[in-house]
Design goal:
With 296 residues, this protein is α+β, with helices and mostly antiparallel strands. The protein contains 7 helices and 24 strands. The N terminus is likely disordered.
Length: 296
């Protein structure tokens, strides 16, 4: 059954100030914002490229064809891929879910935009994603992120990328947490709250209170246990909104598992591209993707 009312509510977060129902990509100017367009929680690539600066809509028009409704205020399709009220277009800028629509969200040179067409039941809002690491810790909606702290080995990785980073991670503000879940539950109030209510935190992968990895599967509409997973890489914000400090969390069933997963992220940042969250096994292989479930 189509969720008509939720879809209309989501339109406020996906507005697009277009004058026509279909727009052709114009000639692209000098490199500006990077745009990625995917479906099904990042598993199906649709379009990518450098978009013009201005708004999210301006940048996206540079690389893909948009279809809109409600007088051009609601993005219904990108390159022919159309939402239906249960499967809709969501976007993040620099790893943060924007609080306003694409026509009202400014983008600058160096920003990154990720659009994804997916089922969103029980995960209407995913405040932050790992898709563009080191964003949002290097750069958020309003420019460079300040006051960043991080646990090793991500503190050194962020510093090497030019992010002024204090060590270890604080319990407030923009931060990268690395640790075993049981230890982080005691150390950081955000992880404690998020594990208690993953849906409220917008988590699509997490370590539960029993110490087992879980992943949200949107097609099934429920969480799945991931027996092979020993660590998750996920993000949210302190208050679960775009205006709160971003927090990237690499959490293991043990401290050693978390350290190994964090080192894998530091060494191979493309691993998390176009993913809301990932689970890794003991060999560093990806065994789940947030939203699309476990891979084996």
């Amino acid at each position: 059954m189509l969720r008509v009312l939720p879809a209309l509510l989501l339109a406020a977060a996906l507005v697009a100030a277009c004058g026509t129902s279909k727009t052709q990509p114009p000639v692209q100017s000098a490199p500006g914002a990077r745009v990625s367009v995917t479906a099904d929680w990042g598993t199906t690539p649709i379009a990518s490229g450098r978009g013009n600066v201005g708004t999210v809509i301006d940048a996206t028009r540079s690389v893909a064809r948009l279809t809109t409704s409600y007088g051009g205020r609601y993005v219904t399709g990108i390159d022919g891929n159309v939402g239906d009220g249960t499967r809709d277009w969501i976007f993040w800028v620099n790893g943060i879910e924007a609080p306003v629509g694409g026509a009202d969200t400014a983008v600058r040179a160096g920003d990154r935009i990720w659009w994804d067409l997916h089922r969103w039941s029980s995960r209407v809002h995913v405040a932050a994603v790992i898709a563009d690491w080191p964003m949002p810790l290097s750069r958020g909606l309003d420019g460079p992120t300040v006051g960043v702290s991080a646990d090793p080995p991500l503190a050194a990785a962020l510093t090497a990328l030019g992010v002024s980073t204090a060590e270890p991670a604080a319990t407030h503000g923009a931060r990268a947490l690395v640790g075993g879940s049981a230890e982080l539950i005691q150390r950081d109030p955000l992880w404690r709250r998020a594990v208690a209510d993953p849906a409220a935190a917008g988590l699509t992968a997490w370590i539960d209170l029993q110490g087992h990895a879980q992943v949200w599967n949107a097609e099934l509409g429920r969480a799945q246990s991931v027996p092979r997973a020993v660590a998750v890489i996920v993000a949210t914000t302190d208050g679960y909104t775009a205006t709160d400090a971003p927090v990237v969390m690499v959490v293991g069933v043990t401290e050693a598992a978390a350290q190994a997963a964090a080192q894998r992220l530091a060494d191979q940042p493309a691993l998390v591209r176009n993913a809301t969250a990932l689970c890794l096994d003991a060999d560093g292989n990806v065994v789940c993707r947030g939203g699309s479930g476990r891979s084996s």
